[in-house]
Design the sequence.
């Protein structure tokens, strides 16, 4: 116990003396949480549209202003040659080209039908898909208004219409920060925990101080605890800054569920990722090797943890990978507790699994850490 | 005079794959002596020393250090030895005093004895004013002396020094050897590797390693007599000439 106190004292002195690390610990969660949720937004805006208007009528003007007023589109060009519009698309300045034929207004009034042509730049697939859907909605809305405004009622009500009204549960306004901030916070805590801890130990190997430690009667588990505890505390601290300072103050996210549930899960989760960090450190001799390994895991954490893409919509094999990723569980728990207000009962399985991870990783690390080679 | 044996090896061997770094070495070290472990670069000195310190397990052969077996009692050995590696290995981002207290603490010394002994240490090294300076800011010679003092801070039975004076000037080397003599007078057995032949003269007995084997073991005086030469340098040339391994 006394040995452990000496180790912890030394560890904290070193951490607090390293101004870069200290700044990183405080600034990283704040900056990343401020920037990333706003940038990593699923909602697609700023779709550049080029409108080719051969009609130049009151109706076509109305449609154009409706499109622009929606807020999703930016008018890249408004002209009357399709070639011109298409060229913009080739130069990547337009994502969509909408062609309004001549006689647009006349045809609608006389014959009650009209065709519009939309060309989509599918290089950025998501943007194109979403853009053309938005455009379709705007046009059909425009169509509805037009019919009720100018056509006799008999003609409009000739076909029954089913209207779908949906309401979004747990995130009523589809507020993206509410969805993203908890996820990003998980990634941050994992990085701080796993990689700072791994780099710290590998640095001792590189500098040679670990040899001096290995030649002392320090017990293996004391040494490992001496490394785990400081970074566990730092992880808790970073999480708290993120949860209380940034997400509450800046994004106004107040967890629906209990803070106690979140922190209980976090405390075990941190043990799991720290264990992973320890494993990385036992397998690398230089900080470079540790960084490369850390980067490899980082990519898996971010891309296979359900932060950006839902795990349920992954192919089955990659769902398996996601299930082996501790980050997946914490992101789920965060979203469940913060957005749905889930309690201990709902996250029981997650808790059991993450405890398993913690035991597995740390046992592996302790076995693999050798004082004698 | 019957002397107590504190280190004893019998056919101690370490292989890395097909390379035999240490090849069946056998020797005894007596209590309180300064034992020089000489040899060219790559002769296997460090590997042999790491086995004796419990940092590396032997491939075959036997050895005991301070009465403990190097296979099974490595942790017991670690309680009884001090070690100073080739690479400077105190914490550069801690102050002198913090380093001393940390290592004293993990060897289980009491607070009171850490306090009195660290004061003595600072006086002996003349570092009273520098006590709260970061170790990283000290010149190399001071660092080496400090590392040695830390290695014997917990009063080990044996201290292992791996090329402790590499890269320091002759004056500092001289001062360093004064520290070694002080430790030896206190009864600490000193096991030191070096390739400075003038330092070899300071040892009570030396062993000369060539290609993983011990080529000669005796007092410096006796060695010079045996090989009919005047200096330790010549003894070294005489023995190392036959070496097959090139330096690393």
Sequence:
């Amino acid at each position: 116990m006394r040995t452990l106190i000496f180790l912890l004292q030394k560890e904290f002195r070193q951490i607090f003396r390293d101004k870069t690390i200290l700044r990183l610990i405080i600034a990283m969660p704040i900056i990343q949480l401020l920037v990333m949720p706003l940038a990593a937004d699923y909602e697609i805006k700023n779709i550049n549209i080029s409108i080719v208007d051969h009609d130049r009528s009151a109706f076509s003007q109305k449609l154009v202003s409706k499109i622009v007023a929606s807020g999703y589109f930016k008018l890249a060009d408004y002209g009357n040659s399709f070639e011109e519009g298409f060229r913009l698309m080739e130069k990547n300045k337009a994502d969509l080209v909408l062609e309004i034929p001549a006689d647009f207004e006349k045809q609608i009034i006389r014959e009650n039908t009209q065709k519009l042509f939309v060309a989509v730049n599918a290089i950025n697939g998501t943007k194109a898909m979403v853009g053309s859907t938005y455009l379709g909605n705007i046009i059909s809305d425009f169509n509805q208004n037009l019919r009720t405004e100018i056509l006799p009622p008999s003609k409009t009500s000739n076909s029954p219409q089913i209207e779908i009204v949906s309401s979004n549960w747990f995130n009523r306004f589809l507020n993206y920060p509410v969805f993203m901030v908890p996820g990003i916070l998980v990634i941050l805590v994992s990085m701080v925990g796993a990689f700072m801890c791994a780099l710290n130990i590998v640095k001792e190997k590189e500098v040679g101080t670990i040899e001096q430690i290995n030649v002392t009667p320090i017990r293996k588990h004391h040494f490992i605890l001496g490394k785990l505890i400081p970074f566990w505390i730092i992880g808790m601290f970073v999480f708290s800054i993120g949860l209380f300072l940034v997400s509450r103050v800046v994004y106004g996210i107040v967890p629906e569920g209990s803070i106690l549930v979140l922190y209980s899960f976090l405390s075990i989760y941190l043990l799991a990722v720290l264990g992973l960090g320890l494993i990385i450190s036992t397998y690398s001799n230089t900080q470079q090797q540790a960084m490369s390994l850390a980067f490899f895991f980082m990519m898996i954490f971010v891309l296979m943890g359900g932060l950006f893409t839902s795990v349920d919509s992954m192919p089955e094999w990659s769902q398996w990978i996601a299930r082996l990723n501790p980050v997946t569980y914490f992101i789920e728990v965060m979203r469940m507790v913060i957005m749905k207000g889930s309690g201990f009962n709902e996250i029981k399985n997650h808790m059991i699994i993450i405890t398993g991870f913690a035991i597995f990783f740390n046992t592996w690390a302790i076995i693999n850490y050798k004082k004698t080679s | 005079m019957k002397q107590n044996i504190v280190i004893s090896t019998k056919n101690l061997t370490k292989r890395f794959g097909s390379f035999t770094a240490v090849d069946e070495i056998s020797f005894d070290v007596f209590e309180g002596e300064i034992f020089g472990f000489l040899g060219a670069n790559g002769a296997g000195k460090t590997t042999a020393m790491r086995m004796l310190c419990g940092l590396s397990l032997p491939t075959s052969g036997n050895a005991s250090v301070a009465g403990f077996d190097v296979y099974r009692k490595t942790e017991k050995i670690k309680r009884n030895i001090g070690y100073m590696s080739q690479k400077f290995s105190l914490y550069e981002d801690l102050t002198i005093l913090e380093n001393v207290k940390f290592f004293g603490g993990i060897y289980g010394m009491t607070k009171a004895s850490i306090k009195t002994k660290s004061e003595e240490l600072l006086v002996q090294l003349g570092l009273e004013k520098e006590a709260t300076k970061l170790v990283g800011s000290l010149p190399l010679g001071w660092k080496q002396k400090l590392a040695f003092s830390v290695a014997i801070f917990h009063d080990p039975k044996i201290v292992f020094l791996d090329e402790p004076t590499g890269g320091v000037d002759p004056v500092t080397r001289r001062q360093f050897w004064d520290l070694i003599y002080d430790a030896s007078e206190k009864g600490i057995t000193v096991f030191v590797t070096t390739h400075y032949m003038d330092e070899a003269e300071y040892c009570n007995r030396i062993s000369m390693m060539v290609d993983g084997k011990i080529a000669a073991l005796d007092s410096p005086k006796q060695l010079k007599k045996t090989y009919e030469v005047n200096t330790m340098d010549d003894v070294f040339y005489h023995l190392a000439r036959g070496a097959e391994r090139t330096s690393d």
Remarks:
- Strands of chain B lie at 5-16, 19-30, 34-39, 60-65, 68-69, 81-84, 158-162, 189-194, 205-210, 213-218.
- Chain B is about 35% helix and 25% strand.
- The radius of gyration of chain B is 18 Å.
- Chain B has one domain: 5-240.
